[in-house]
Amino acid sequence: MVHKPKQRSSSPLITVVVPSYNQGKFLEQCLESIFKINLPIEVFVLDGGSSDNSLDVIKNYNDKITWWRSHKDDGQSAAINEGIARGNAPYVCWLNSDDFFYEGGLEAMYAQLVNHQEKAFAYGKCWLTSESGCRLSHYLTLPFSAYLLANYCFICQPGTLISRKAWESIGGLNESLNLAMDYDLWWRLYNQFGAPQFCRMDIAASRAHADTKTANSIDDHYSESTDVVRNHYGRVPIKWLIAKPIMKIVRAIEHKIYKNKALQ
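Predicted structure:
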């Protein structure tokens, strides 16, 4: 199913892409947060053929969404690339349908990129939230350092904004990656354009719940992440070997907690 596009804004400043699959219970909050952005935007929703209430939610926003479709696709990375390719705004981002923006955050990053046009992208702070959207803790976000990035992905994806020229120059997301495609993207942008702009504001929320890909694919996530580090940094810091068994235990406990809450 493909929705005919609404009339575009004559000069959108930001392309926002929402990849989604069976996240109807979160999608409305995601879209509401996008449409509170106080800048001209264009919004593309790429649904992977959801069987829940996602289409009902999407159709409620027909008058605001620039374009949407719902059918089986080649995965999240391909959907994001497709959505961004459909836009024409000078800055781009994507927001997974279980995440949401905080008011004023994207505007702050846009202002910083306009004032630092030599930067390929900007990133800011994010909160980790519960399934209901309550704040749990800040995602550990740090000033940029390649050494630190090799040890820990301190850039939280929903809190990022990217120059379209830079995005197109490197070819967007690597569609062969399913879990660490954002980590790979930060490295490729840095390697070609230098350090990004750090915005010290709360930009977005990354929602923790039992159905996230990260929660359900710990080994695969570590494998992809270490491959990314090896490819771009030349070696894998020992931290990854030490942290893996610890994080597997932590993730397993978190996953059990999320599942139990979902059943209550």
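Summary: The two ends are 34 Å apart (CA to CA).
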